[in-house]
Q: What sequence folds into this?
């Protein structure tokens, strides 16, 4: 019998796409659906999904939890846990439309919530860490419940099916987001599970990814030491946690983070600090073929593995930045970009909102690593 | 070109002499044949002195005393600088033996001629070098 | 530059090689007085013994001469005109030179006694001599060799090989007087007798009659062929006539230059320094002739840069399987020596303090190379080491200091070798 | 003592058709097995033969063969010929049985029960001939909060030459390995016998050992090194010390070890200043201070039953590099009973220790190096995938230098010039050739490792480290799979 995500490691090939308006102007989901639909053959109908940023401006200060339930009992269990730990401003089903090619959908709800003060005080965690741990608890310990996304003012919409059908199912044309990413999946040994579709998210992070990471076990065992439990056994999860560890916890900037996950060759590293980073975080080097788009509320970054074994194309038109697995996927929505290029291995394409400097606007850099004078 | 012998790595096993003998006189390195059917006459000799053992071999000197002292012009230098004996001409006067500072040229008494290293010039890498088990012999320019 | 060499033997060949090591273009002319091409005199005994096998006595091949651009002219020089730098040949031809080398060698000494001109009295020095001997010898006849030097012994050997009854007569007290010591001569004498060569010492030839040779002691010996091997004398007449400085041989400086700056001399015709005794003497030896020729050639072609330090006496001869090697000289009459003897092998070394000055090796040629070189290079080796060596004279037992010196001179780096 | 009732272990067969009486075998056998008398009569003393193969290898006519002595005992599964012979030997000598090299018994070899993965269509394999393939690895404390200050060893290939002391092996072994290590961009280990003055230039490429005997340890020795290794235990003889017999303590050895010549060199079983883990912490700190915190400090322990707890303690005591030596690890001399019955396989120890250190969150404070019976590049790959940072080899290196595994190292009569200090035998190992052979071996392994990594779709060694998904176990019980942390084939 085939096992689901979380029970077995599932490699998959994929299509990815991302669009950002750097001025933060929202636009409907139609564009990203057209984009990903154009790469229909890169998926096999076993998974599709989107991440949208800026869709809940009215609840911007709340963690927006998109949660999938197998059944009513799971929802009850989960809500009991949530109400114990969070103040919930609003809870409602995510609106969907019936779609002939999308079947076996779980019960899909969203919750706008904030950790309870007393819980934070009791655990002595900051609210991000508290929420992240809560998400991991739900995924690991509450049967039949799965948190699809958990960031502020953003959401993940994913399921089993071709991405364009999933987009229609979730009525994405009704949402206005300044940043969309999309994923079409070609897994090779899963029956297809809604929770296992991509994007993979944690808090504000969302990741879409194409490829199979050969270093998976080395990466996940490294992350284990930093208390990440890779329950889904997918590459995307590992990538997300790597970004989370490096940027949120260790507070490295984008360039430093990229120099870890797509490290330059030893022979090309001149900077002692980057050498040191590679020595320490060698376990996080993502080896093997991949192209990924990592997004937060601040923008997106797209990057290839260091020897560019997977496709990635980027284009710019005015305030819009497009990235996708194929050039045609960009041309279909923007026939005449100002600039279009194929980034090299390990060379990131960065699209941040005009007023942001980092993917995560957080406290100063990690200074536990000595910097050269 | 010449073979240099390194006392510090010479084991004294004597394989150089054995292969030297087998390489010449048409035996093409067939050790068994020359020892069972032929008369093994090696050119270079393994010496055992205070400082250890080493193969006493020809330096193919630039001003080779053996060439200059040869009464019949039998000792010659080939275009590669290899000093060899022309057995058509050697009469076995042993002047070369008397003149070789290395004591390398030796009498071949049964033929009334002399034996000396010709660097296996017909067969490539000198047999002693090729068969030294410890790299104690090296061919140098 | 035009080089002319009078004489076409070993020194001439050395000179060609010496000249060509510097001057690849200049013309070289060899005046071959014997008109037999460039051949090696020591080979004549082998020619006599086995005329078929040793027909070709060439010291260097025709291709070799051609390759070195040497023009061999048949003819002998009768006069050197130093002022015009010209050589006059026997047929009146005149050859001009820029540099001249006199390498006229020597000729057999013939005593002035009665009957010496008889047709069966021969010398043994040139191809012509061999041909003359060959034409008269008959197996089973009696051959008398007068003189037991190198030439006499080789003549004896070849005649013996041709089946004649051979006796060697020496006027000194033992055979090979300039090479052997009385002790070693005794041994060699026995070996020679075993090999079928009779010897007689202390006899001086006084007259030669029909089928009979008479000696000072009254001894009379029957004889069919008599070979004179009583030594040689250098061909110095040409140099004397030209007014060059001459003693017993032509006098040259350390650059082999005669008293005329354009004329050099080398080989058996010159006087050389014996580096053991320090005296100037005639050292008619093939290896020295070659070396002198070579150095003269280098000095003729270039600046006078290669000094000749002199030579040592050295001889190696094989007589009917008996190998005799000797080198060096005795600086004093009474010189300390060590002897080793086993079966038919014999080694005698003479020590002058910590220096080896002479050795005599009979049937032991293997160790003679390093011994010769020890003498020539004046390598100091302590007496106790010699004593050790003489307990079993093999190359392995040769004093280590000698090998170390050779090794040091070679000085290779293992890593830089192949 | 009466007549020895033990028959020879080996039989030397001489093909008389082929023997040419050249005497090479006579001259080459330090055990005097071969004799050629003045009549040209060749005779052999089988009982002296140790099957080192020197004579057979050098015989120019291949006239020699050595076989196990064919005299059979009556078949008995319990009283094997070996066990009977051991009793004969002890009854004759009254002594402890000694042996060289590692545990030769038939215990399960876990390396041989692990298979390596390769990429197929879902991801591409990488061609090492066309794409860069990084083998560089760093050893040392990589704790992310302190790395800036902690010294590291840079290895261009995740392989080092393991500790073999001068005295137990010849100076030419040290020279060969020192030159090879330098050329390969890795390190060699002096072992506990100090550093020979000829090799001072190679000190910077050496991991110098401090063992219970403290042989040759002085400030310059520590300074002139790449790293310092404290040897607590050795895989071949856990729990016991060492004994270099006086006859191997030549003038040179005495100089390097700083002990009188021709006297026995005894390494005590424990370090007499380490009677508990905190004493080790003090020694580590002492060595760090002595080397001005410029060099990583390694601690080498034998793989034994409670290795995880020991490893955890050693890491927490401040070791920058933890070396675990398995029971296949070689030695110059070990009591046979210890060698054959004490210790555990290094594969198991490694898997357990790696997991334990990760569970404790201290894996990054130390680099894990394993040693003991690594035979080929696949073993190296498997070790790294199980969690090792690098691997030490010694026996494999000696075999590359000519060792024929006769296991008689303790006699000092090594015919291959390896485990000896006799000058005439030592010269049989030409360090120029030795280093070339060691370099060739590791270069070959490196190529193979690159191919295997490329097959896995990995182009940097750090992505293989602890990547146990790249392994599958074959012929292992569920329990063994669990202990190794790998899945079974087909899973």
A:
């Amino acid at each position: 019998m085939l096992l689901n995500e979380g029970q077995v490691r599932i490699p998959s090939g994929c299509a990815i796409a991302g669009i950002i308006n750097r001025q933060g102007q929202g636009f409907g989901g139609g564009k990203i659906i057209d984009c990903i639909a154009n790469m229909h053959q890169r998926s096999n109908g076993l998974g599709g999904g989107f991440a949208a940023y800026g869709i809940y401006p009215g609840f911007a200060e709340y963690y927006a939890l998109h949660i999938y339930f197998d059944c009513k009992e799971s929802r009850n269990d989960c809500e009991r846990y949530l109400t114990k730990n969070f103040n919930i401003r609003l809870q409602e089903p995510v609106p969907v439309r019936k779609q002939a090619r999308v079947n076996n959908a779980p019960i899909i709800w969203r919750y706008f919530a904030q950790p309870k003060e007393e819980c934070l005080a009791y655990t002595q965690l900051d609210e991000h860490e508290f929420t992240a741990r809560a998400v991991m608890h739900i995924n690991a310990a509450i049967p039949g419940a799965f948190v699809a996304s958990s960031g502020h003012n953003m959401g993940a919409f994913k399921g089993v099916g071709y991405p364009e059908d999933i987009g229609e199912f979730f009525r994405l044309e009704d949402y206005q987001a300044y940043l969309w990413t999309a994923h079409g999946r070609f897994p090779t040994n899963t029956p297809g599970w809604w929770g296992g579709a991509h994007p993979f998210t944690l808090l504000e992070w969302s990741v879409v990814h194409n490829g199979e990471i050969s270093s998976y076990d080395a990466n996940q065992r490294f992350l284990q030491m930093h208390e990440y439990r890779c329950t889904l056994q997918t590459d995307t999860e590992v990538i997300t946690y790597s970004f989370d560890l490096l940027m949120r916890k260790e507070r490295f900037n984008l360039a430093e983070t990229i120099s870890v996950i797509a490290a330059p060759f030893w022979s090309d590293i001149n900077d002692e600090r980057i050498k040191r980073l590679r020595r320490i975080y060698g376990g996080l080097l993502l080896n093997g073929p991949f192209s990924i788009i990592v997004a937060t509320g601040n923008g997106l970054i797209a990057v290839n593995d260091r020897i560019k074994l997977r496709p990635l194309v980027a284009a710019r038109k005015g305030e819009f930045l497009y990235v996708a697995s194929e050039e045609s996927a960009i041309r279909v929505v923007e026939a005449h970009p100002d600039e279009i290029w194929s980034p090299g291995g390990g060379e990131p394409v960065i699209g941040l909102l005009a007023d942001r400097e980092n993917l995560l606007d957080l406290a100063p850099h990690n200074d536990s690593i000595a910097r050269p004078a | 070109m010449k073979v240099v012998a390194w006392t510090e790595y010479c084991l004294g096993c004597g394989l150089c002499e054995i292969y030297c003998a087998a390489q010449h006189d048409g035996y093409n390195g067939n050790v068994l044949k020359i020892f069972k059917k032929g008369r093994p006459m090696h050119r270079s000799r393994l010496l055992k002195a205070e400082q250890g053992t080493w193969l006493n071999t020809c330096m193919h000197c630039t001003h080779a005393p053996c060439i200059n002292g040869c009464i019949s012009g039998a000792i010659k230098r080939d275009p590669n600088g290899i000093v060899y004996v022309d057995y058509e001409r050697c009469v076995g006067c042993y002047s070369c033996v008397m003149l070789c500072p290395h004591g390398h040229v030796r009498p071949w008494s049964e033929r009334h001629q002399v034996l000396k290293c010709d660097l296996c010039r017909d067969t490539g890498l000198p047999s002693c070098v090729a068969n030294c088990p410890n790299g104690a012999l090296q061919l140098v320019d | 530059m035009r080089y002319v060499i009078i004489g076409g033997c070993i020194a001439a060949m050395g000179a060609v090689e010496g000249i060509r090591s510097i001057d690849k273009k200049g013309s070289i002319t060899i005046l071959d007085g014997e008109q037999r091409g460039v051949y090696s005199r020591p080979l004549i005994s082998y020619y006599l013994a086995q005329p078929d096998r040793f027909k070709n006595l060439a010291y260097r091949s025709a291709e070799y001469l051609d390759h070195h651009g040497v023009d061999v002219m048949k003819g002998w020089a009768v006069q050197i005109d130093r002022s015009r730098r010209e050589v006059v040949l026997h047929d009146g031809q005149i050859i001009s030179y820029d540099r001249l080398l006199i390498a006229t060698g020597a000729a057999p000494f013939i005593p002035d006694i009665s009957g010496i001109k008889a047709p069966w009295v021969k010398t043994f020095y040139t191809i012509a001599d061999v041909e003359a001997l060959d034409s008269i010898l008959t197996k089973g006849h009696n051959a008398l060799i007068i003189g037991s030097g190198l030439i006499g012994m080789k003549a004896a050997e070849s005649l013996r090989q041709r089946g004649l009854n051979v006796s060697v007569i020496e006027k000194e007290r033992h055979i090979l007087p300039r090479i052997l010591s009385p002790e070693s001569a005794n041994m060699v004498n026995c070996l020679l007798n075993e090999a079928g060569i009779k010897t007689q010492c202390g006899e001086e030839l006084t007259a030669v009659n029909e089928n009979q040779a008479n000696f000072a002691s009254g001894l009379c010996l029957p004889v069919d062929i008599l070979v004179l091997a009583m030594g040689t004398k250098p061909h110095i007449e040409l140099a004397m006539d030209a007014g060059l400085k001459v003693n017993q041989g032509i006098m040259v400086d350390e650059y082999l230059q005669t008293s005329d700056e354009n004329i050099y001399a080398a080989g058996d015709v010159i006087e050389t320094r014996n580096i053991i005794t320090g005296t100037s003497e005639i050292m008619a030896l093939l290896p020295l002739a070659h070396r002198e020729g070579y150095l003269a050639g280098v000095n003729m072609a270039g600046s006078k840069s290669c000094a000749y330090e002199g030579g040592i006496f050295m001889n190696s001869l094989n007589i009917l399987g008996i190998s005799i090697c000797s080198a060096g000289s005795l600086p004093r009459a009474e010189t300390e020596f060590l002897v080793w003897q086993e079966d038919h092998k014999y080694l005698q070394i003479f020590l002058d303090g910590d220096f080896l000055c002479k050795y005599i090796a009979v049937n032991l040629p293997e160790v003679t190379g390093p011994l010769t070189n020890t003498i020539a290079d004046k390598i100091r080796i302590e007496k106790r080491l010699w004593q050790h060596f003489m307990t079993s004279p093999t190359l392995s037992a040769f004093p280590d200091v000698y090998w170390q010196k050779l090794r040091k001179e070679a000085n290779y780096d293992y890593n830089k070798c192949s | 003592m009466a007549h020895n009732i033990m028959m020879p272990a080996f039989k030397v067969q001489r093909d008389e058709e082929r023997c040419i009486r050249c005497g090479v075998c006579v001259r080459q056998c330090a055990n005097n097995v071969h004799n050629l008398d003045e009549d040209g009569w060749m005779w052999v003393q089988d009982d002296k033969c140790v099957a080192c193969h020197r004579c057979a290898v050098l015989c120019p006519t291949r006239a020699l063969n050595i076989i196990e002595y064919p005299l059979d005992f009556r078949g008995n599964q319990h009283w094997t010929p070996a066990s009977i012979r051991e009793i004969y030997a002890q009854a004759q000598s009254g002594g402890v049985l000694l042996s060289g090299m590692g545990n030769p018994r038939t215990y399960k070899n876990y390396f041989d029960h692990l298979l390596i993965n390769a990429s197929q269509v879902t991801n591409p394999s990488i061609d090492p001939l066309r794409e860069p393939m990084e083998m560089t690895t760093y050893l040392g404390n990589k704790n992310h909060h302190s790395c800036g200050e902690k010294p590291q060893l840079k290895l261009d290939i995740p392989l080092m030459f393991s500790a073999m002391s001068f005295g137990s092996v010849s100076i030419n072994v040290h020279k060969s390995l020192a030159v090879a290590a330098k050329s390969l961009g890795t390190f060699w280990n002096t072992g506990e016998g100090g550093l020979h003055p000829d090799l001072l230039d190679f000190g910077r490429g050496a991991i110098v050992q401090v063992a219970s005997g403290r042989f040759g340890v002085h400030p310059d020795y520590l300074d002139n090194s790449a790293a310092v290794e404290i040897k607590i235990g050795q895989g071949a003889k856990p729990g016991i010390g060492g004994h270099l017999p006086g006859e191997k303590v030549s003038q040179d050895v005495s100089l390097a070890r700083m002990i009188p010549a021709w006297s026995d060199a005894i390494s005590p079983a424990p370090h007499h200043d380490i009677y508990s883990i905190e004493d080790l912490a003090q020694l580590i700190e002492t060595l760090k201070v002595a080397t001005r915190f410029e060099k990583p400090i390694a601690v080498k322990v034998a793989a034994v039953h409670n290795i995880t707890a020991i490893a955890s303690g050693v890491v927490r005591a401040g070791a920058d590099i933890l070396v675990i030596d398995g029971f296949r690890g070689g030695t110059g001399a070990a009591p046979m009973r210890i060698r054959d019955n004490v210790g555990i396989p290094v594969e198991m120890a490694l898997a357990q220790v790696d997991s334990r250190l990760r569970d404790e969150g201290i894996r990054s404070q130390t680099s894990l190096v394993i040693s003991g019976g690594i035979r080929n590049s696949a073993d190296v790959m498997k070790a790294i995938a199980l969690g090792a940072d690098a691997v030490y080899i010694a026996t494999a290196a000696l075999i590359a230098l000519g060792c024929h595994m006769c296991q008689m190292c303790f006699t000092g009569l090594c015919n291959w010039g390896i485990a000896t200090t006799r000058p005439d035998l030592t010269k049989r190992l030409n360090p120029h050739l030795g280093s070339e052979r060691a370099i060739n071996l590791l270069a070959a392994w490196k190529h193979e490792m690159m191919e295997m990594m490329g097959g896995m779709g990995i182009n940097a060694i750090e992505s293989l480290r602890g990547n146990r998904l790249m392994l599958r176990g074959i012929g292992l019980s569920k329990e063994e799979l669990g202990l190794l942390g790998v899945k079974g084939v087909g899973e």
